[in-house]
Design goal:
By secondary structure, this protein is an alpha/beta fold. It has 14 helices and 15 strands. The strands form three sheets. The protein has a seven-stranded parallel beta sheet with strand order 3-2-1-4-5-8-9, sandwiched between helices.
């Protein structure tokens, strides 16, 4: 079965990294087309031997990208097209139909109650989403929360399949040598307590709450991993609050930066899965989180190293201070993470493909 994955871009984001892990499981039968920004994930995919096609889309309304994508799908003679992220789902579903490929699957990674991939959900966004969703056969929701939102939007339940994101947990295991190396590069002393956050720098991720929680905490550094439109504002906020902060930009070495941290904080109140939380747990970190559907679907008490906190900035600040005071060290990754093993997730997605083709 020849599969073409179509994604909006291949910078270092959760959906992008998820796709890289998926194609590693699928092997040579999978190729990838990125509409925009090839980025560091495209580089890593190519280093792994995968074909990545660049469509060269210049913006949301660059309709010239559509015939290029149609041509790629037609010439490639793919059996199935799998789309990821809003823009790629819109253009990819249309292009697949125009190219004569009727087997179309989409994964919905980022549908929140108020935001879709960090942007406000407007009536126009919703109408376009639903109109193009009908051109596919199945939409995969990465969590029960996303499946419920799709149903509320009007996607027929029979077209929704819930398959969670996956994680190659072994890749994130704590690496003391990598910790020493990265800390030296960041100018961090071995004993310095590092509070980290990983994710795209957009308002809905509430990264500012981590910086505010760090104010007046002695002997602590904030490590902000990611890039996005609020990056400059966050740097200015850190300076204004006189917080010791390091901003890495986007990073392909997420396992390395997690080894560098002592605590991960996930302050977003509108998560669709919470992949960053699972990665931190696989690295043996204690975690504070506001919202994480992936943990909600695990048995109660199975992940004692993760603590839910209120979205209130004061509550986050108190929780961070408690962990800094206790300095709990590293933990063994929770066994419950095996539910999200990437190999089994990829197998479930393969079953979706076979169902669609039948």
């Amino acid at each position: 079965m020849r599969v073409l994955h179509v994604i909006t871009g291949l910078a270092a984001g959760g959906a992008e990294q998820q796709l890289h892990q998926l194609v590693r499981q699928q092997g040579a039968t999978a190729e990838v087309a990125t509409l925009t920004n090839p980025g560091i994930v495209a580089r890593d995919m190519r280093m792994d031997g995968f074909v990545v096609h660049e469509i060269g889309m210049r913006g949301n309304r660059d309709l010239s990208a559509l015939p290029r994508l149609v041509h790629l799908i037609r010439v490639g003679r793919y059996d199935l097209v799998h789309t990821h992220l809003y823009r790629a789902c819109v253009y990819g579903r249309v292009a697949a139909r125009l190219a004569g490929v009727r087997n179309v699957v989409a994964t919905e990674h980022s549908l929140g109650d108020r935001h879709l991939e960090g942007r406000r959900i407007t009536p126009a966004v919703r109408r376009l989403y639903l109109a193009t969703e009908r051109l596919g056969q199945v939409t995969i929701a990465v969590s029960t929360a996303v499946a419920r939102r799709l149903a509320r939007w009007g996607v027929p339940p029979g077209r929704i399949v819930t398959v969670p994101n996956g994680i190659e947990a072994g890749r994130y295991r704590f690496d003391p040598a990598r910790r020493r190396s990265l800390r030296a590069g960041l100018g961090l002393a071995p004993e310095r307590f590092v509070v980290g956050t990983v994710g795209r720098l957009v308002a809905s991720k509430r990264t500012d709450a981590v910086l505010r929680a760090m104010r007046d905490l002695d002997g602590v550094t904030a490590l902000v991993v990611g890039d996005g439109p609020t990056g400059r504002e966050l740097v200015a906020l850190g300076n204004r609050l006189e917080v010791d902060a390091r901003f890495t930009g986007e990073s392909a070495d997420v396992p390395g930066v997690l080894s560098t941290m002592d605590l991960l904080v996930s302050p977003s109140a509108e998560e669709t899965f919470g992949l960053g939380v699972l990665e931190a747990l696989a690295a043996g970190l204690p975690v504070l989180f506001v919202e994480c559907p992936a943990l909600d679907e695990l048995p109660a008490g199975s992940v004692p190293t993760a603590r839910r906190v209120s979205a209130d900035p004061g509550a986050i600040r108190r929780a961070v201070a408690d962990v800094v005071h206790d300095r709990p060290g590293r933990f063994e990754p929770p066994e419950a993470l095996s539910r999200y093993d990437m190999a089994s997730v990829a197998a479930r997605i393969q079953q979706v493909y076979e169902r669609v083709i039948r």
